[in-house]
Amino acid sequence: MVLEHLIFFAKYIYFINILFVVVIIFVERKKPVYSLFWITVLVLTSYIGFISYLLFGLSFRKKRLSKKFYMRNLFRYTNPSENNEAKKLEKWEQMIQYLELTGKNRLTFSNSTVIFTDGKKLFQDMKDELKKATSYIHMEYFIFDNDALGKEFFSILKEKAKSGVEVKLILDGVGCRKLPLKKIVALRDSKIDVLVFFPSYFPFINLRANYRTHRKICIVDAKLGYIGGFNIGKDYIGKGHLGKWRDTHIKMKGEILNELQKEFFSSWDFIKNQKFLSFKKKVRNRYDEKKYFPEKEKIGNSSIQIVGSAPDYEFHLIRDAILHMITKAKKYIYIQTPYFIPDDIIFEALKIASLSGVNIKIMIPNKPDHLMVYWATHSYVGEMITMGVKFYSYKKGFLHSKVVIVDDEVATVGSSNFDYRSFYQNFEINAFIYDFDTVKKLKATFIEDLAESSSITKEIYHNRKLLVKFKESISRLFSPIL
């Protein structure tokens, strides 16, 4: 009986794929590069195309959910910034205005930052701060492993929840797929409010491989928050198969915490599927203003915008802001990323900037965590090198840092990689920092990392083996879904 069903399915799979093509063209209306990619895969590969599209391509239902997220994300507690400090940022005024108007990402001025590049130091600082929590702890993570480090954090969260502290935890359904269901039940039994972002309804597969929350957020008592590239697990303190882990995270204090809190509540509401409440009065009724959005004392001079991005926002805010940074650069652009798979516009913008005299240095890992992404990254290196862009391969461990620095004036740090998936498909969050002191520290760290890297020269690139070239060419074809 089962064999008969399989034979029937085999006969009609091509027609099912054609139906998917019709959906792509007339219903989903994807970007042309995505549409052509999926149409080609579906038409030329029957079974592989069918399965791949179910896992990575089918999205119109999730897009509708994402639109609700975008609409919900329009609620904001404060008005767009009106501050004399903004006059010092005239070069970036258009970018700041764009982010405020399209994403309601308010520029804040009274903040302080601490940069972490070592996982052990970061997690010790986080644990210390979590133990001090008296009101609430809010966390949103792509990966939160149930290993020794993860259990330390879970233990702290349980203790704080037991003492009456509000603990809300968002875990991604794919990134945290190894987390046992009984662990999540145990956390909930410990009075921790746990939500799973797009969970899998099948034991070994998740049909929602796209549209993940890739964010790493931790907020404590409206006093401080963390965002960046570090997930929680032993890999991120150098105890995984990739060895030493090099990443970037920032700890923030000040009025930026209100903006970070709003991003967390946007995710929380999206998962809870609550109705959007647009007016400030209704938001106040829903979320205790004094508890979550208190007035902040002036504690620093760092100007920061928190920018969230999601697959079906009307605008791809993080990607657009990075593009603006590239086009406005006059002196240099420094980029650290584990995956360099730019879209066509950013790719061309980097080439134009380089040919216009801007010094561009891009640092990538010298070892892969995902083979196809690694080879796709290297496929873009050669063309960039011929345009004068300098590439470096980081050798002192695995580079997972997501940083862009421009002209000693602006930098961005967060969860977003330099690739299609982060720019278009994932829920991401970055801090855009307009502060000379913080930017200078990030630049100094980048220069220190150069000493631990080797230059990828034209000679080295052109002398790579034929098999390597083949891997790069094939992997690049899949760039739109990597």
Explain how this protein is built.
With 482 residues, the chain is an alpha/beta fold. It has three domains: 2-58; 67-309, Endonuclease, Chain A, CATH 3.30.870.10; 317-481, Endonuclease Chain A (Endonuclease, Chain A, 2-Layer Sandwich), CATH 3.30.870. It is built from 18 helices and 20 strands. The protein has helices spanning 2-28, 32-44, 46-57, 60-72, 93-103, 119-131, 148-162, 181-189, 256-272, 280-286, 289-292, 317-328, 344-355, 371-386, 420-425, 436-450, 458-462, 466-477; strands at residues 107-108, 111-116, 136-141, 166-172, 193-197, 216-220, 224-228, 245-246, 249-254, 303-309, 332-336, 340-341, 359-365, 390-394, 398-399, 403-406, 410-414, 418-419, 428-434, 453-456. It has a nine-stranded mixed β-sheet with strand order 1-10-19-17-16-11-13-14-20, sandwiched between helices. A hairpin with a 3-residue loop joins β6 (216-220) and β7 (224-228). The radius of gyration is 23 Å and the shape is globular. It starts with a helix and ends in a 5-residue tail after the last helix. The relative contact order is 0.13. The model is unreliable at 70-81 and 274-285 (pLDDT under 50). This is Cardiolipin synthase. The chain crosses the membrane at residues 7-27, 33-58. InterPro entries: Cardiolipin_synth_Firmi (IPR030874), Cardiolipin_synthase (IPR022924), CLS_N (IPR027379), PLD-like_dom (IPR025202), PLipase_D/transphosphatidylase (IPR001736).
